[in-house]
Structure formats: C-alpha cells, structure tokens
Amino acid sequence: MRKHLRRIVAIVVTAVATLALAEAPAAEKSNKADRPNIVIIMADDLGYGDTSPYGGWIKTPHLDRMAAEGMRFTDFHASGNVCSPTRAGLLTGRYQQRAGVPGVINADPKVAAHHHGLNVKEVTFAECMKKAGYRTGLFGKWHLGYTKNFNPMHHGFDRFRGYVSGNVDYISHYDRMGVYDWWDGLELIEEPGYVTHLITKHAVRFIEEHKAEPFCVYIAHEAVHSPYQGPDDPAQRGPDARKNRSRPIDTKTAYRRMMEEMDRGVGDVLAVLERLELADNTLVFFFSDNGANPRGSNAPLRGFKGSNWEGGHREPAIARWPGRIKPGTVCAELCITLDVMPTMLALAGASVPEGHKLDGVNLAGVLLDAKSLGTRQLFWNGRAMRDGPWKLIVGGKGQVGVGLYHLGDDIGEKDNLAAKHPDRVAAMLAAIARWKEDVETSATLQRVPSARSPRPTARIIADCP
Ligand SMILES: [Ca+2]
Q: Is 267 in contact with 59 (CB distance < 8 Å)?
C-alpha cells in the first residue's frame, strides 16, 4: 500500500513539475508592451549625404517614412570609421579597442589580421538579450572573424544567415579572395539570390516565426558597400565571373540601385511589423557603420570612410517606435553606436554581468522623452575626440598639425581654431592620451595582430577587405 502511495505521489509531483515547465516558457514568451522588440538595421558604408531624409542624392522613401514617424539624429556617430571596429563596438557597447578590434579583419589569410576576431569571452548585446528571454537573429554581414570559432552563433545569436567577410559578391556570394561565403549558422550553404533581398527575406521570416516572443534582430546590410552590383547586374566573382567580364556595370547607377533595394528592405521590415501588429511594440533603429567612400556622399561633412574627419564617422541614424517616439522629431544630441547596446538592454530589462563596464549610455530618455545627455566626450582611434560641440583631430588628411573645430558653427571642419584656443587643445590632447591608456590597459583578452601588420593601412581602408 505504502509503495502504491509513493508511486501516486511521484506521478503527481512529476505532473505538477511538467505543467510548471510547460507554463514557464509561455509566460516568458508573451510579447509584452513593456519589453519592446528591437530591430537594428545597419547599412554598410552609407554616407551622411546619401539618403533623402538627410537631403542626399538617392530617394529612400522608407527611410523618409521612418524619419517622419520617428526621430532623426543629426549628430550620431559610428565608433569606428571602417567596418569591423564599428561592429565590435556595436556588439559590445564598448570602444572596440577594448575588444582588440581597432582595425579591419582582413579577407587575405596571408595577413595576420585575417586570423583575428571578436573573442567569445566578450559580452555581446545578443548574449544579454538572449539571457533576458529574447530570440536573437543576425542577418547579413558579420566581419568579426573568418574562422568558425568567431561565428555569431558563439556570440549569443540563435540564428545567423549571412556572410563573415567584409563583403561578398551580391549575386554569387564569393568574397574578394574568391572564397564562397554564405552561412546558415555554422554551416556554409548554397542559396541563390541577391544578398540584400536574402537578408531582408530571412529577417522578415525570423520576425514572423518569433512574433509571439520578444525578439532582437540585427540586420546588417551589405549595401552600399562594394562590389557595386544592382539586383540585375552579373556576378563579378565566382564561377561565372569570367564570362560576365564583357558586361560593364555603371557604378553610380549600381550604387543607387543598391541603396534603393536596401531601402525597400527597410520597408518590408516595417510592413511585417505592422502586419503582425507589432509595430507599436518594436523599436527600429537604422544607422550606418561608417561614412561613404568617394563614390557616395557625406555632404556637408569633410572626409570619407577611413578618416577621423566627420565624413568618416558621422552617420545618418533614425529611430522609430510608434506611440513612444514622437513623430517627425530631429535630435541634435551627440550619440554613438556604443549607445545602442545599453539602450536596448535598458528597454528590455536585460543587463551585463555585474561589474562589467560599458562605454555607451542609455538613450531611452533621448528617444522617449527628448531628454538631453548633457556635454559628453567621445573618442575615435586615439586621433580625434569630441568635447560637446568641439572636435579635435590629429593627423587628419589634408591638415598640418592639430585641428580644432567648433562643429556647431562649422560642421564641415573648415575653420581650424587650434591657434586661438591653445588651452582647449592641450586639455583635449590630454584627454585623448588618458583614453588611449585606459582602453589599452583594458584590452587584455587579445593582442591585436592588425595593429602591427605591415600591410599598408590605406589599402585596408580602401577595400575594407
Ligand atoms: Ca563599412
């Protein structure tokens, strides 16, 4: 009899535990209004003067709509002026120098930096969001390590569909070294299609699949990075490249077509959120990873991708969250891509491990209540810094010595005021020196082969390999 009772008790206990287990995820899975979905859309090499909400030369109606329905930033910056560094900063919410990714991770295996990547020990936004119950997906470009041990699947992403290189052929998906580069998680797969379309398709599908759960989607577009190929252009790399060489591509037209397709992808993401009635509970944040090269436009800024002039790192940035962000607002606060992680963690109720310091700040007050961040200091590569409206730049191309500019009056960095303000110059140089010491001291996880590579920096920047 006692044995029989024990058996009944065991069955009841098991049943209750099973029910509890079944219910726990259901509770976590509710897509509650107080825990917004996050969609980050990052363009590649898109300049400040490229898109229509910034008065640029290419019509981007969906970005126009985002700006009309949300907040457009005028002083938002990438933490790097080339691809990999900005991505390391975005993923970690810290200056990328701390993660040992101050330069581009090179496609060429003969270059030391090729074997480098984002150490799995780094704390990423994807890991933190996942721990907080979010489903995490990355669609598009990674560029934080070529080998599998650096794959996004080891950095907190539930799903990865895209490429690990700096760029791939939009049609054939070969990188510039002739290596095929299109992944589903940890596996190379064959999947025909124009890269921009594939990125959008998989991001939209991920949102559809996880509509009942909080999700965090990182859409890292290839557009408008080279190679310059619209959706109807031929492959330039891979098995068909040789026979396509006789078909010339008009670069300017291709650039515009690439932008239009990416903009259409932004529209598709907004549309799926509306169709699933998730728009009011989703923050969509669009920006670029660095400035345009001379094929695009950073007008009215000085300089291009790869430089510490504003044209290298001041980016278009638009945030949309209907019902929460006031429509049609323009924000002049000084912000940086490092702020994205602390912002999404705060909105999601997620956190970093205790004692882990982020360099970015939470922008929720700026986005939702038009609050000011006050005067802040930001740094680029140990060669430039902001102190409120003041910008100091050392060794800028075309400049002798140190440059000091008041960006409130001179966004084009034309009038060097260094000689008029020697005390300010000295103070800002000292701040840069302190910053360098701080990030170099903390960069203990990996030493940096790219920083010591004999490869000419100019070529790295030009190709963003
Ligand atoms: Ca880039």
A: no
Active site residue 216: no
The SS3 call for residue 90 is helix
3-class DSSP assignment, residue 182: coil
One-letter amino acid for residue 178 of the chain: G
CA of 99 to the centre of ligand 1 (A): 18
| Distance, C-alpha 433 to centroid of its chain | 27
* Angle, helices 83-92/340-348, rounded to nearest 10 degrees: 30
Question: 260-309: per-residue pLDDT in tens?
Answer: 999 999 999 999 999 999 999 999 999 999 999 999 999 999 999 999 99
Q: How far is the CA of 226 from the centre of ligand 1 (A)?
A: 10
Does 4 map to a domain? no
- Let me know if residue 342 belongs to a domain: yes
Total domains in the fold of the chain: 1
Question: How far is the centre of ligand 1, averaged over its atoms, from the C-alpha of 142 (Å)?
Answer: 11
Ligand 1 mean position to 349 CA, how many Å? Answer: 30
Residues 51-83 pLDDT 10s: 999 999 999 999 999 999 999 999 999 999 999
Q: CATH code at 58?
A: 3.40.720.10
CA distance 441 to 433: 12
Q: Which is catalytic among the residues 62, 77, 83, 225?
A: 83
Asked, for residue 256, whether it belongs to a domain, the answer is yes
- The catalytic position among 143, 221, 225, 313 is 143
Neighbours of 263 (CB within 10 A): 26
Please say if 143 is a catalytic residue: yes
Q: Which domain holds residue 124?
A: 34-376
Kindly give the distance from the C-alpha atom of residue 41 to the centroid of ligand 1, in angstroms, as a whole number. 13
